Amino acid sequence: xxxxxxxxxxxxxxxxxxxxxxxxxxxxxxxxxxxxxxxxxxxxxxxxxxxxxxxxxxxxxxxxxxxxxxxxxxxxxxxxxxxxxxxxxxxxxxxxxxxxxxxxxxxxxxxxxxxxxxxxxxxxxxxxxxxxxxxxxxxxxxxxxxxxxxxxxxxxxxxxxxxxxxxxxxxxxxxxxxxxxxxxxxxxxxxxxxxxxxxxxxxxxxxxxxxxxxxxxxxxxxxxxxxxxxxxxxxxxxxxxxxxxxxxxxxxxxxxxxxxxxxxxxxxxxxxxxxxxxxxxxxxxxxxxxxxxxxxxxxxxxxxxxxxxxxxxxxxxxxxxxxxxxxxxxxxxxxxxxxxxxxxxxxxxxxxxxxxxxxxxxxxxxxxxxxxxxxxxxxxxxxxxxxxxxxxxxxxxxxxxxxxxxxxxxxxxxxxxxxxxxxxxxxxxxxxxxxxxxxxxx
Length: 442
Prior knowledge:
Elements: E1 26-27, H1 31-46, H2 62-73, H3 81-88, H4 92-104, E2 108-112, E3 126-131, H5 133-139, E4 142-144, E5 151-154, H6 160-171, H7 235-249, H8 258-264, H9 266-270, H10 275-282, H11 296-304, H12 314-339, H13 348-366, H14 384-396, H15 399-408, H16 410-437
Antiparallel strand pairs: 1-3, 2-3, 4-5
């Protein structure tokens, strides 16, 4: 298989180097050349020279080759998990295991990683089919160029036979053997008894006695214990329960994935934290708005960090919760002071000053206006200086604005006195009318 004396083990790629900008391999020129490298790794796995880093789950084998063949057929290397499950009739976890093996052997690298946002729909990861540097070194392949865009220009003479065998394997289609469910304790069917023996297989059977039939001494199934208490959650169930509470209660976690949140708050759930305590400690620095959390699970992991090592007692968590609730109450009070009407000043002196101001505004609005012509003046006949003087007079006497509205309409008044003056005058009138409906405190 090699132009050298022995076969080297493949260099396992760590997760930080499983990206296009961090890999040392090169992008495969075609699907056939990539499958050649896949079969080289398969040969090393059969020789026992490659063992996955994960200690559980399936190992490299025919399923891995079948998944690699489906990936090689894609024009854009974006193998969705659901697509591979439908094509190969495999479980989600099995496909994830084999994709991990393809990445750690340097055959696949991320171009962009998919998303798993609940309620929005996940996006599949985009990969690049790459050929590891160990493959080129093992077979003496010479390349030109730099980085992932390197291209092969030659091969060692001693490795041509090995490459030819790998190319033949890459051209064939790998078929997975169907899984068969074995029946426990017996074969798939009952063998037919042929021969000269006249004995029957039912000779050793006998019917039960009449005393045991319908005697009522034996019950068909055990009864449930009515004194059994409610079932308690185990450690994993408690983590998922806390994650569901956080997703339903915290506004900026509404789009987060429950399994990811359960993994993030695993230490908090094991220590007996409540959902309100997790939110309080996560928002103790600054509050978080729902629109600001682009990736809620990552933001929660960043905010919590290793705080479970700091808040180790219920008293500490209670203190942090009370401080957070007080800050939230103060914040709501500040916003309420701007948004809601508080009923005016409480001091009697301040109320008298306000009453005098409203009475002065009402008297000015009720004052008789100077007699003017019943038809409004055309704005085109006025000069700039006259319009400026009229606006200054309207600022001193708002009744001129009401007169302009009565004669020429609100649009005419806004053109003559500007929107700002008209809005201020109408607002004063509304305040005066509302003040008339309020009863005096004294």
